Amino acid sequence: MWGxxxxxxxxxxxxxxxxxxxxxxxxxxxxxxxxxxxxxxxKGIYEVEFDDTNKKDEQWYINTNQSFAFAGGKITASxxxxxxxxxxxxxxxxxxxxxxDLPSDKSVGDVxxxxxxxxxxxxxxKQAAGILQDTDWYxxxxxxxxxxxxxAITNHRAAVRTKxxxxxxxxxxxxxxxxxxxxxxxTEQEDGSNTRPLGELPTLES
Length: 206
What we know:
single chain; alpha+beta; 7 helices; elongated
């Protein structure tokens, strides 16, 4: 990305090389390939430098739009302060009802917008259900034919349910969005493995 600077002010941003007019002269898109940095800047064309210092993981935060500034002989694109996504559900209130904003199929106290905790707990439940599904046939076989379920399978299924409950509790107890993000953040351990505070659902040993 480039920007055209006139009188120390960015007058145009260019996402991809294309023909441009500066003053009364038309320049081919080829100048972006053939001209040096100094030659471009002599015509007021500066390549944009990106500063992602304030940019945060969009799974947990809402980033601002980028702003562009020209200073010190360069154009910089940067972000403002990110806003944490709500970790708790937003509910329909009496005020919403009084203002006529409450949908006909909703009541005061119902969920208006799901928070991250609700979303993440649903994901964990879905993952656990998927793991258990792989061994559901043992349960079906026992119901149909009376064949005993191997103890390894019974223990595995119990472990999945236990860990799922532990993960749900950890998510529920997270005080805010940064605390929730920490649960999912992997760090390298002394043995070279990467783990996260939330842990993982058990997998069946082959």
